[in-house]
Amino acid sequence: MVSRNTPHRLLHIALILFFCGLIIFLFNIDPALAHIMLIFSIPLFVIYILLTSLPVFFYDCPYKTPLTFVLSYVTCAIAVYRPRRRRHLRGALLNQWHPEKQTTHLTTMWAQGGREQGAELDHTALRWTLLALTDPNDLEMFVKALHGFLQSDSDTGFTRDGGRVAQSLLFGPDMLAVNLVQLLRSAIPSDTLVLAPADRRRLETRAATCLSTISLLARACDGPTHNAYYLWGAWAVSYSNPIMRDALALWEHPQPALATLARSTVFLLAWRALVAYRTFLADIHECARKAENATLAERYRLTSEICDRLPAGKYLVGAMRNAVRGLTGDPASGIGGGALLAQRAEELAGGALSVYMPGVNSRAPGTGGLGAGSGGSGVTDSDMPALATAAQKDMIKAKMCIAVLFMHAACALTADAAGQEALQALAAPLGWPESCEYDEDPKALLQNVRHAHGEGTVPVLDEDQVVELYRSIHETQQRRVDASDVSFVEGPNIHMRPRNWRQATF
Amino acid sequence: MTTHIATILARSTNQFELEPVPPPQLPSPNSHKAYLIINGFWFLSLAFSLACALAATLVQQWSRTYLQGTEERFNLHQRVRMRTYLQRGVQKFHFSELVEAIPM
Fold first, then answer.
1. Does position A5 have pLDDT exceeding 80, yes or no?
2. Contact A329, A410 (CB under 8 A)
3. Taking CB atoms and an 8 Å cutoff, what residues of chain A touch B58?
4. Which of A48, A419, A428, B16 lies at a C-alpha separation of 20 to 30 Å from A279?
5. Over 50: is that where the pLDDT of A503 sits?
6. Residues A272 and A352 grouped into a single domain
7. Is residue A502 included in any domain, yes or no?
8. Are A25 and A132 part of one and the same domain?
9. Distance from CA of A481 to the nearest CA of B (A)
């Protein structure tokens, strides 16, 4: 490194010396001329100094002069060997200021993976790639790769990194998940008759790729982070609803594998919307309960936080309701299998909390609370106890809703491996502590739902297995992972926790 | 000035005319200003062209460093990270704008 840079360094030193000599010479000839030269060469010199010293402080600065190395060695020496510096700090400082950090140190650091900086770089690279992709075929390859990225090697769950990176990549502020929607839409031809068989097969492959990635996404990561409540509107409008519509369009696809995939995707999307709404309810409940017993200042802070978050609930309710309506058909027509599910979902949507969320029931008047018109957004701190109770009540309803959804899925999914896998995904442990009336006798609920669904349907698993899976949803004990691997592997439950991973950056 | 040279030439060709040579006139205050301006321009152009040459070699070196950083690793993952890192630095410090501002 040193030997390669030496000629450059000498050249630059020579140039600086030449300018110094020229100005001194000109002072002897004519001071006025020397002043003119000085006025113009000082800025050049300052710029040069700046270019030399910037990379010492910013490692990713592309500007560098051959003298940078000299300067960074000097800085390193000053920082490390300054007297009265405590000894144990020296190692860290040596790392921080070492001149060769950029080339070797950084790469070895990222090679170990898992470091936050490395993950952030991966995210940026993926985001740039996704932004640069315009051709649907390239996008399809990306989506296929994403599929492998989300699925971990072990059969227990998802890699935490994969889920998180996908979450921050697709559901960040620029909502890149819209690309998935477009790809899925391009896979559904408007008129299948004019297509050649080869083209149709290609489109079917694309749709299958899309749907399996979407269902994996629904399992592995909950839309935007729950702290980024303002993103839920975009999530519901531009991702959840269109995907739901397109997946429902594939529900009765002639290709049985694709139809199964579409069904399980629809169920997983509905499940995700419901789980997201339940997480939202839990957040509100937590905040409101804390605000009840807090000091005045803290209470005002929490109240304003709740006021900020409540509008997100409107979109979450909308997404959940749309998903369930897509599954069951119009609730007014009383379609057989989904009537109970539709009823439970409407109860949840028009639940106690909907009074505080204006506009929730604007599309279905008469089904829910009527307090929406009276300026419900103005939640004051005196409403906190009522809000906490309302959220608590709705959480019980959410639990009932998910029980019915699970049983509905057990009856509606096809009895092959894909259907079983989807059902197992729906039974991912959630650990919701509320009690619900279906807990005592899940079998009765299953029979009830199946009866409504029609006896002709083949259940995915037999009754006992379904009940066992149902019970596993609400097991409170979580699988503990090894503490050393905690940043890599996650139990299936971990994606339920609110995340705040680098969300300022994304 | 020309008359002065003419007299010198005349003296060298014609040895017999021994006329006293008038000393060259000192530049008047007016022409001193012109002399200053001309020399100032010359030296400034020297300084600017040297600075531009320096900047051009620097830019070349920077791009070479960037390319080396993005291409020299064998591991694809590392290469992606390094490239992203360098590219982000390039964006942060407006490298491309600066390159366009410099005559190459």
1. no
2. no
3. 51, 63, 65
4. A419
5. no
6. yes
7. no
8. no
9. 27
The answer on A347 and A376 residing in a single domain is yes
Q: How confident is the model at residue B5 (pLDDT cuts 50, 70, 90)?
A: low
CA–CA distance, A47 with A63 (Å, rounded to integer) = 11
Considering the domain architecture, whether residues A132 and A189 belong to the same structural domain is answered as yes
CA A470 to chain centre: 27
The candidate with the shortest Cα–Cα distance to A427, out of A466, A397, A369, is: A466
Quick check: is A135 in a domain?
A: yes
Indicate the SS3 state at residue A370: coil
Residue A114 buriedness (CB in 10 A; 0-12 / 13-18 / 19+): exposed
* Residue pair B43/A26 in contact by the 8 Å Cβ criterion: yes
Residue A45 belongs to what domain range? 2-111
Interchain CB distance below 8 Å, B36 and A60: no
Print the SS3 string covering A478-492. Answer: CCCCCHHHCCCECCC
Q: What is the dihedral of CA A247, A252, A255, A258, to 10 degrees?
A: 20
Mean pLDDT computed over every residue of chain A: 72
CB distance A124 to A169 below 8 Å:
no
Per the listing, tokens 């119009």 go with A330
Query: With 80 as the cut, is the pLDDT of residue A165 above it?
Result: no
DSSP β-bridge partners for residue A159: A489
Q: Residue A129's pLDDT is what?
A: 85
* Nearest-10 crossing angle of helices A116-132, A160-170: 50
Tell me which residue of A295, A159, A287, A277 sits closest to A216, measured CA to CA: A159
Q: What is the pLDDT of residue A254?
A: 78
Phi, psi angles (nearest 5°) of residue A188: -105, 105
**Beta-carbon separation of B95 and A37 below 8 A:** no
Structure tokens at A161: 């990194």
Give Cα separations from A117 to A87, A111, A113, A229 (angstroms): 27, 11, 9, 25
**Which pair of structure tokens corresponds to residue A16?**
């600086």
For A107, the closest of B73, B89, B93 (CB atoms) is: B73
Alpha carbon separation from A224 to A219, A273, A354, A377 (Å, rounded): 14, 12, 22, 23
Which residues in chain A are closer than 8 Å to B40, comparing Cβ atoms?
33, 36-37
Q: Which residue has the higher pLDDT, A39 or A158?
A: A39
DSSP, res A32 = H
Q: Tell me the three-class secondary structure of A148-202, residue by residue.
A: HHHECCCCCCEEHHHHHHHHHHHCCCCCCCHHHHHHHHHHCCCCHHHCCHHHHHH
Residue to test with chain B: of A24, A38, A42, A44, most B Cβ within 10 A: A44
pLDDT of A501 reads 34
- Measure in Å the smallest separation between the Cα of B60 and chain A Cα atoms: 11
Phi and psi at residue A489, in whole multiples of 5°? -110, 140
Q: Is the dihedral of CA A347, A349, A350, A352 positive or negative?
A: positive
Domain count, chain A: 2
Tell me the mean pLDDT in the region A110-131. 72
With an 8 Å Cβ cutoff, are A64 and B61 in contact? yes
Question: Is residue A225 situated within a structural domain?
Answer: yes
Phi then psi for residue A158, to 5 deg, are -115, 150
Given A94, A111, A128, the domain boundary residue is A111
CA distance A130 to A138: 10
pLDDT band for position A334 (50/70/90)? very low
Taking an 8 Å cut-off on Cβ atoms, the answer to whether B62 and A62 are in contact is: yes
